[in-house]
Design brief:
Order of helices and strands: HHEEEHEHEHEHHHHHEHEHH
Number of strands: 8
Helix content: 40-55%
CATH class: Alpha Beta
Number of helices: 13
Strand content: 15-25%
Shape: globular
Length: 311
């Protein structure tokens, strides 16, 4: 019995050493790092938010909300065409991503609603905005639009991503496992984060210099990324947004839904549900395009956005 106990103790100690050794988060995001990176920042209720604002001050305000793991630079291919069309474009890093803080709080739709609301207020945007959200950013946008219809001029949802325990997605089993305390932590560190790097390589394909992948991996080095992802997967990634879509269906602002029919992250069943919940939404299906239309088919996607904004 003593031998078995000793072996178990050694095994647990070894596992703990490996767990700590493989922790990627070796840096604390601070003012010095942000100063070296450049950019603009505001301190909000839950920490510093990194954002970019460009385009004519008199232009229609377009707010771009990125997805669950790739920060604001996911919209790099969209910003200049929107500015060229006369828009004033705001994009920002959500808490837990990019150069924004990673607060030790519950990561859910309310956290992100408040972040966006504070940001708009601090920037003194009194006019309604054209809100465009991609992937999980689409669900953030949907929640915000449902709660603040007076702040919305138009809502465009691009492959919105939610309720992962209901739909047949590559993440259903992962979300179940992440919800268990110890196994969830191990799974996120040893499996999910490495897989997120592989997924980013697929979504950001075609970047020959590899700069995008370096930028993506760099955000993993800052303390709090792993926690924020784990918290999000335990909460809003797996929760229902039907109430939000019902509110959007009743609202007056124009709504559009964009989806690529080669998307292997957001299934057609989810898209069909959104269309049935918001029958007034204009639907655009991009033939042969996957989950990252802003990169995979930038010209087509940009033209699509400009046409929707011009309706």
């Amino acid at each position: 019995m003593h031998i078995v106990t000793a072996v178990l103790a050694v095994a647990v100690a070894a596992a703990a050493i490996v767990f700590v050794a493989i922790d990627r988060e070796k840096r604390t995001l601070n003012e010095d790092i942000r100063a070296a990176k450049g950019g603009t920042y505001l301190t909000l209720a839950h920490g510093v938010t990194h954002y970019e604002l460009a385009g004519p001050e008199t232009g229609e305000i377009v707010v771009l909300v990125h997805g669950g793991t790739i920060p604001l630079w996911a919209w790099d291919e969209q910003v200049q065409p929107l500015i060229n069309a006369g828009c004033r474009v705001l994009r920002y890093d959500q808490y837990g991503r990019g150069l924004s803080d990673r607060p030790a709080v519950r990561y859910d739709r309310e956290l992100y609603r408040n972040q966006l609301l504070e940001l708009l207020d601090r920037l003194r945007f009194s006019r309604p905005v054209h809100l465009i959200g991609h992937s999980f950013g689409g669900t953030i946008a949907a929640h915000f639009a449902a709660k603040h219809p007076d702040r919305i001029a138009r809502l465009i949802l691009v492959a919105p991503f939610f309720d992962l325990l209901k739909y047949d997605t590559p993440y259903r089993a992962a979300c179940r496992l992440v919800r268990t305390p110890l196994a969830g932590r191990l799974f996120v560190r040893f499996v999910l984060i490495p897989k997120s790097i592989t997924r980013a390589r697929q979504l950001l394909g075609g970047n020959e210099s590899g700069n995008d992948i370096r930028r993506f991996e760099e955000q993993l080095l800052y303390c709090g990324f792993e926690y924020s992802l784990r918290s999000l997967l335990r909460h809003d990634f797996v929760e229902n947004y039907r109430e939000e879509f019902d509110a959007i269906a009743r609202a007056k602002y124009p709504v559009s839904l964009v989806w690529g029919n080669k998307d292997n992250n957001v299934p057609r069943a989810l898209v069909n549900d959104v269309r049935s919940w918001v029958p007034r939404a204009k639907y655009v299906e991009l033939e042969g395009v996957g989950h990252q239309p802003g990169r995979e088919a930038a010209d087509r996607f940009n033209q699509c956005l400009l046409e929707l904004l011009g309706d």
